[in-house]
């Protein structure tokens, strides 16, 4: 059976030693009293919850899946899911980073980030039920009317109800401008919605007494395309003014998808038939309102793959130490055994370290991003708030696409460590690969993320935000450029940072002449940008670790960190050499191919 | 529902236009009368069989899986599998390339290769039932006694019985030296075998009246390790001297694995309890005898991924032309539609062309290898026979590992083209990813293949065989070095061929000092070697196509081939830049990591 140990030590390293989050957070009025002990204690309890409550349901949830009763349209998730959710609500976990005005605990986002990483390691399918709710909470919190907030937010905050995002329709996923679901205004100010949605995660279940669907739809007079989309809140059960549950609304599950993975989560086809809803935000501005939820969800998806990468790594490491097979090429290592543990083999180490380096680099980046979210919301200096928001917007497509692609590489590598035993279900490794695979697709495919990054976030403002992030790298280089012990990390990072400026300018020029050049280079570009960012965080982590070692700290954790940084720069970071080459080879080899693709 | 069209045109291109196989085959006495029409006609019929008989069972077979009756130990494969197998036998397909002395049709291996590619595209899980038999046929044909051949081969050739390979045990897969199954000699010259085998593909089923298990086991006095292993044939039902079926033997299915994919194939735990067998080959020389089967199987596994890559490509291409979503970045393409077909987007083309280039490069390499097998067996000149055998031995780990890794990349890319629809089962794309995943593991993991290539096949003879293959590349460069139209293909190929010599010598020196350097570089090295080989075949295919175009042939097939070659060299081949860099970064970053992997 698989195992999972919450990586609390590594989280604490990133939070307190590398990013020094409490210093940063104390500068934000709502978090002026935060201290490391509180954060650590919450995460320790959160880790226990993940290990004890949802992790034991991961394999059984995958095997059992969800069941739809076609007469009642009710969905039953796998055994134990409902009970675990009740414990989640009882423990107050839904409220962790929510606004105290609506019953939230008001903890910083960084805490929620680390908690959800562990929840994703334990059980991604289960965690999507409260995870989607949190996105609905954020969209309503940002764009709801006072009445909507008062009516709905306390229930989302407590976890008493869950939320969903209803965007996709059978004929449109990426291209929401084509959506057809209609919203007819009613005399009482409400709307009646009719249409078909698909791929709605956590779309129907019996874990809560109500579900709040956030639905994109068109008003009768709406302009065509993406400028004619409005956002509505459509509860499964209508909600009376006093907050009590009323009649069943005309929104129900028409079918469940049979998927490659995340079987424990109900991916629902949602049918709306004169479903009553109220509008969230302004008419025809639904996409903007939904983007609050989507940006949160994109960071959340990256976090899902971070969780899977970590748990895959832990299991592959344990297996590699335990499984004996063949002798080390450089001489017998375990003389008392008929063969050596496979961790003596260089390529087994490479697979393990790939997962470890991607998990730990991803953790640093993800925590950094949520710290920016905390600062964007509460920093007293407007410029800091603005810069924080800009940088997190730049990093969001990287977190989404780079971490999920890395999760694909890492879960597959960890599965490979198990040989044939990785392909059978009992070890749980192939499930991690299947579960991770959706993360590269939903909330905007990774190709869409790359276009968002290169086209919008970078070329869209002539690289201004990239330069802001580049200044952080520049500062690190200035600080460590003459430190010989840091040279193996700083030199490749500085070289890539240099190259990146030139590379970006080139692509800007080429894209100006032919926009397909941007589309042809974007995916490669995103991975280069991902390594630039990971390179920065790995250099910072190595810096912190080397300082501890220099100060005589005997904890082998720091040496391990330096070794992992060395592996990252030697074996993973050089991918950028090829990526820049293929990106520079341009669009012709892709677009002048009509005969090939006939 | 998925679709599949046998790629007969591309097969004919490789067979007749690039490799000119009939010219080569006619030089081999048993094939002196072969002609292109015969080959094409057999493949056309073979393609029909794949499309009409086994392809319709692919998704249902995945959904249904195999069922074990725990009281009788009998396994029932998915619905329709047994009937399809009867048609396979009736059509004479099992006998295609088998020895006419035992009822075979005696067609060249190249024909069997192309037939099996199509069968793998149609249904890998089904195709493994006869596929494993063919390996058993080859091992018995090479190492069986006359009595064994006479008794068993006609039934394997006709397909009346199937065969298996029983190697792996719970505690050993890669490291067969540790295996424990015992074979006790009996007074009558037979042996009684006792032990437990796992992961036995096609290990039990009701499709044939008997199953011939080829089992590795130890004699009582056998030396320890891999030098004490013998090979036995152990039929499910004992076979009387007249070939009729006798009593049930003590070999049965103790359980079925629940796997990520290939659900239609019964992956059996095989229990031997005083099972009666006869020895194949000499005592303690079982591994050598089994290697005949394993080498065939390794080429066969590469062929499985080739088939999956092709069918994934065809479906993704059709979907990309049909699915409309967003507008082209370079201006509206389908003015009559609310959005453009997604094939206008550069990255969608990149995903499609990746699969196409890997499929067509793989096809050329795989056919080339089986042509070498034909020559190794029958060429009148001993030196040609020897060289052919050496080169196919060199290329076998490349076919196995490079084609299966490419299949992983390609099936995942093609699934990604479908967006969310790729993740649900109905389109069949996620099944291709799951089915392909085993190919990177079984018959020796891809890491083992890379060690076989670099350690044994290349450094083991100081690069002598690599030089023989290098001569082919040299000849092509000499032939086309001044042809401007070929420069974009020849230049990168020539550059890599140059680098490769230096790179190999370096690794040889480093490995001499520290064998872990070989283990650290091997996986990267194999992918570089794979691209060297693919680069050679892509250049040859471009050469053939450019000549046709120059001669005024208006068939757009040739332009498509040149465009795909251009894509391959622009977008896939440059991966070698990073791979050589990471391979050269050495073993320290992997091995000096005990603190990291604590």
UniProtKB/TrEMBL annotation, chains A, B:
It holds the Pfam family Acyl-CoA_dh_M. Its cofactor is FAD. SUPFAM superfamilies: Acyl-CoA dehydrogenase C-terminal domain-like, Acyl-CoA dehydrogenase NM domain-like. Residues 472-593 form the Acetyl-CoA dehydrogenase-like C-terminal domain. Gene3D superfamilies: Acyl-CoA dehydrogenase/oxidase, N-terminal domain, Butyryl-CoA Dehydrogenase, subunit A, domain 2, Butyryl-CoA Dehydrogenase, subunit A, domain 3. Involved in the assimilation of dimethylsulphoniopropionate (DMSP), an important compound in the fixation of carbon in marine phytoplankton, by mediating the conversion of 3-(methylthio)propanoyl-CoA (MMPA-CoA) to 3-(methylthio)acryloyl-CoA (MTA-CoA). One of its GO terms (molecular function) is flavin adenine dinucleotide binding. It catalyses: 3-(methylsulfanyl)propanoyl-CoA + oxidized [electron-transfer flavoprotein] + H(+) = 3-(methylsulfanyl)acryloyl-CoA + reduced [electron-transfer flavoprotein]. It comes from the Bacteria. Its EC number is 1.3.99.41. Keywords: FAD, Flavoprotein, Oxidoreductase. This is 3-methylmercaptopropionyl-CoA dehydrogenase. The keyword Signal does not apply. It comes from Polaromonas naphthalenivorans (strain CJ2). Belongs to the acyl-CoA dehydrogenase family. Residues 165-274 form the Acyl-CoA oxidase/dehydrogenase middle domain. Residues 82-160 form the Acyl-CoA dehydrogenase/oxidase N-terminal domain. Residues 284-451 form the Acyl-CoA dehydrogenase/oxidase C-terminal domain.
